[in-house]
Amino acid sequence: MHGPITRRTDRRPAIAKRRKRRPAGPPPSRSPKRDRVATGGAPAKAARAPRRQAGEPVPSSFRGVLIRAALIAAVYYLFLVLALRTDPGGAALISGLGFLLMIPLGLLLDRVRYRMQLRRWQQARGGGAAPRRAPDAEGP
Prior knowledge:
extended
């Protein structure tokens, strides 16, 4: 048979290492790594985006309102078709109209919610806008 098992004395790896492939073609015009090096280590988007303070409310976005309206319209469509056994075409029409109605309503409600949260946050910090006064009965 074979001789006794001995330990390898050379430190070469048993499996050959793969070399990193060199990229083919021209370098990309925008490279995140180059942007970090150019800005001194900070990510490129962080330099553009204004930083929020701790606890500051986040303003709503049009995309968020659209996603929320689409989800509600989809659930409403399923409810109409499955629970109320409505014709799928009519249910799609009603859900589409509901979707179109929910967009301006969602924008309005999000704007009101954001303003209320911002007012509370500013009052909690001890600054910001003064509370609203009721209009005086006397004229100017």
